[in-house]
Amino acid sequence: MNNKITSPKASDIELKKIKTAIVIPAFFLIVAFALKLIETLEGFSFVEWGVRPLSIEGLPGILLSPLVHSDWEHFFANAVPLIVLGVSLFYFYRGISVKVFILIYLLSGLWVWMGARDAWHIGASGVIYGLAAFLLFSGFLRNHIPLMAISLMVIFLYGSMIWGIFPFKWDVPYSWESHLWGSVAGSVLAVIYRKRGPQRPVKEWPDEEYEYPYWEIEEDNKTDV
Questions:
Q1: What's the predicted TM-score (pTM) here?
Q2: Residue spans of alpha helices (H) in 43-201
């Protein structure tokens, strides 16, 4: 009987990691897509599932608002960066990715509820800004080249998003507060979790044999007469 044990191929392991990293961002988008489709087909709006600051009716929006979008353009504008940044988080920061995602999701919504304009705030942009900020700062804080490459990717692809956190006019049609608080949440979590998850490898130098000076050897070899 052949009891030979075979180990999984490196390519199979990588494919499994990629599939796992896609699960949560894809599930999030499927739910958001379904809600937008229901709105379109049935002709009503889920806008009141958003966050309305400092109001009881706006509290559920902390959980629900990232799933609601004003129109299809709004949905697709958020879908691509959410997949790119979400998969990057879950692939490169596997040990802490679930905690970081949940905290960004909740903190960005909570802080919008505590400090934003009196309006219904909807959309996943707060989560997206939080993911971008975490990936950006976390790579540099860890000083690990592969993770710093992800930080540079975020700058290259989404560096222009920084303008979205500034209210050039107070009555802008997008929730700059969600952008701002999402960015703050991601930045704070990058600092808090900088010692957890993937880290730069530490070089271990081999121990060198200590060579005793000749006078110590001669001293040891002496015998009392």
A1: 0.82
A2: 61-64, 72-92, 97-114, 125-142, 145-158, 176-192
